[in-house]
Design goal:
This protein is an alpha+beta fold and 179 residues long. The chain has one domain. A four-stranded antiparallel beta sheet has the order 1-4-7-8. The chain is globular. The protein starts with a strand and ends in an 8-residue tail after the last helix.
Length: 179
């Protein structure tokens, strides 16, 4: 089963060097029954894209939690064994699931990453994450949701697994950070 793990460049670097994504449980996104039901008229490719888009949005949340990380969404596509069904608390259209295993680096199929030109848009989205997901309504909420939604207008680039070490070396700890 293809799953999409939201990440950041520092977390991707850590997983690459550790040889795994963990510890369990891990939040991932996939074509779940809830997603398939919500997008009933969609084909498999569209469903995969919807799952990846939800993982990309979750990556913005990870960026919000790590102010030092490069403001570029990272989604790691992995092939894993069967995933247990949701426990019934999943909302219609939700691709989120919980993996109760560590995902080995050998399961990585590809990495999707924002282009360097997306840093400003994604940075605004990350800065707005807390406001957009806060429990209290305030006058900045609509602007925050707009900033977060704007991230989805940026395309994610595709990188093969053999390109990831070179990608991480090129990004380094001082590249791609907030301007």
């Amino acid at each position: 089963m293809r799953v999409y793990i939201p990440s950041t460049l520092p977390l991707l670097d850590l997983a690459c060097h550790a040889g795994e994504f963990g510890p369990a449980p891990l939040t991932a996104y996939a074509v779940t029954p809830a997603l398939r039901e919500w997008f009933a008229a969609s084909d498999d490719e569209e469903l995969e894209y919807a799952a990846m888009a939800q993982a990309a949005r979750a990556s913005v949340g990870l960026l919000a939690a790590d102010p030092g990380a490069a403001r570029r969404r990272v989604v790691v596509a992995c092939e894993v064994g069967a995933v247990p069904p949701a426990n019934g608390t999943v909302q219609l259209g939700d691709a989120r699931l919980e993996l109760h295993v560590v995902v080995p680096w050998t399961a990585v199929a590809a990495v999707h990453l924002d282009a360097a030109g997306a840093v400003e848009v994604v940075g605004k989205g990350a800065d707005s994450w807390a406001v957009a997901h806060g429990d209290t309504a305030n006058e900045d909420h609509d602007d925050a949701v707009f900033a977060l939604d704007s991230c989805e207008g940026e395309d994610l680039l595709w990188y093969a697994t053999q390109e990831i070490p070179d990608l991480l070396a090129a990004e380094g700890p001082h590249r791609g950070l907030r301007a």
